[in-house]
Design a protein that fits this description.
447 residues, mainly alpha, Preprotein translocase SecY subunit, two-stranded antiparallel sheet
């Protein structure tokens, strides 16, 4: 079966793609949804002076707001209806997953299957509305206190402005959450990841032009720009290599007699990815850090002294910020791996079907062995994620490189691209299998 699948995958061509009507519909739907998202990132909030806002964000482009604006695809810098992007939903998902591991009720819902998953998703949406409302209100208060040499950012501050800002930003985030779910169900790839992907890619041309312009004016040395390009290619190669790396554990199935036939006696393998958690830890870590730091950044200059001290300690390139970022990435790497892969359940399933790892007793010993191997893999995977994500932080801290398309963003773009391409290939493979089955049935009828 594996060789047949590989042969079909190798024989895929544009002719097969042209015949895959369902896949084309899914691709067009995904493209249309991303276009709608990008249009929304240019619809401004009411009551905002765009000229003053542009001046304010140009002064904070190298800070934490610039990083948040990268994830939002420029929507925060323009203060549009999608300024908060999908980050409140990610924050709510983090909280629900943490609660699932400590709450017996939520854990029971998780084991109920589809009905339990719907309940958890519903409470995640409620949490998204609450987090988004709090962040939107903080942004409204911060915007009222912002001003530049050209005047205040808000023309008519007050409760009406705050109310409209909260309603608009909450509505924008909830629409993006719904749009992401529609892409996942009716399109290709994970909708939430594709929305973040589209926002990052949209900033790529501007970032490249900015770097090249600084090289032309002499603000950045030419060798540093060349080194950045080479480093980006090397990081992409490293990401692809690690994301495809697997530890294959051999699983043996004993022979058993069924009537006059001898079944089984085959060996298979259990693939364990080097980075089981994927791109989730950096996204979760960024979301956790961006939530309080963004509000601190908006109130800079008007808040109490201790708030200014916290803002300085958590600034880009600061040691405490980097340590917190690295620590959160490591934590979520282990946490998310524990959620998606349960060694005890896997060992029970192997024992149920007669499979065993050579040299390891079935049951608890197999679970302990899988847990040991997975823990070692996660250590390496977490170290890889920390290295990739902290690399641009050191570049920004040491040389003030305005190059946000690195580290976390590169990891997200490459990983999402690989996952989307894999889904497209699986759709093409399923389409070719359906064609073979139909041909076989037609031949059987003719006979």
């Amino acid at each position: 079966m594996a060789s047949a699948a590989e042969q079909l995958a190798a024989n895929m061509n544009w002719g097969a793609f042209a015949k895959a009507t369902e896949l084309k519909k899914r691709l067009w739907f995904t493209l249309g949804a991303l276009i709608v998202y990008r249009i929304g990132t240019y619809i401004p909030l009411p009551g905002i002076d765009p000229v003053v806002l542009k001046d304010i964000f140009s002064q904070n482009a190298g800070g934490i707001l610039g990083m948040f604006d990268m994830f939002a695809g420029g929507a925060l810098g323009r203060m549009t209806i999608f300024a908060l992007n999908i980050m409140p939903y990610i924050s709510a998902s983090i909280i629900m997953q943490l609660l699932t591991s400590v709450s017996p009720t939520l854990e029971a819902w998780k084991k109920e299957g589809e009905s339990g998953r719907k309940k958890i998703n519903q409470y995640t949406r409620y949490g998204t509305v609450l987090i988004c409302a709090l962040q939107a209100y903080g942004i409204a208060i911060g915007m009222e206190s912002m001003s530049s040499s050209q005047g205040p950012a808000v023309a008519d501050p007050g409760w009406f402005f705050r109310f409209t800002t909260v309603v608009t930003l909450v509505g924008g985030t909830m629409f993006l959450m719904w749009l992401g779910e529609q892409v996942t169900a009716r399109g290709v790839g994970n909708g939430i990841s594709l929305i973040i992907f589209a926002g990052i890619v949209a900033n790529l041309p501007g970032s490249l032009v900015g770097v090249l312009e600084m090289g032309r004016t002499g603000a950045l040395p030419t060798f540093l720009i060349i080194a950045l390009l080479i480093l980006s290619v090397a990081v992409i190669y490293g990401i692809v290599f690690v994301e495809r790396a697997q530890r294959r554990i051999i699983v043996q199935y004993p022979k058993r007699q069924q009537g006059n036939k001898v079944m089984g006696g085959e060996s298979s393998h259990l693939p364990l990815k080097l980075n089981t958690s994927g791109v989730i830890p950096p996204i979760f870590a960024s979301s956790i850090l961006l939530m309080p730091i963004t509000l601190i950044g908006f109130s800079a200059g008007t808040g109490p002294e201790w708030l200014q001290t916290v803002a300085q300690l958590l600034g880009r390139g600061q040691p405490i910020y980097m340590m917190l970022y690295a620590g959160l990435i490591v934590f979520f790497a282990f946490f998310y791996t524990a959620i998606v892969f349960n060694p005890a359940d896997t060992a029970d399933n192997l024992k149920k079907y007669g499979g065993f790892v050579p040299g390891i007793r079935p049951g608890k010993n197999t679970a302990d062995y899988l847990d040991k191997v997975l823990s070692r893999l996660t250590v390496v995977g977490a170290a890889y994620l920390v290295a990739v994500c902290l690399l641009p932080e050191f570049l920004i801290a040491e040389w003030a490189v305005p190059f946000y398309f690195g580290g976390t963003s590169l990891l997200i773009v490459v990983t999402v691209t690989m996952d989307t391409v894999a889904q497209i290939q699986s759709h093409l493979l399923a389409h070719q299998y359906e064609g073979l089955i139909k041909k076989a049935k037609l031949r059987g009828r003719k006979r």
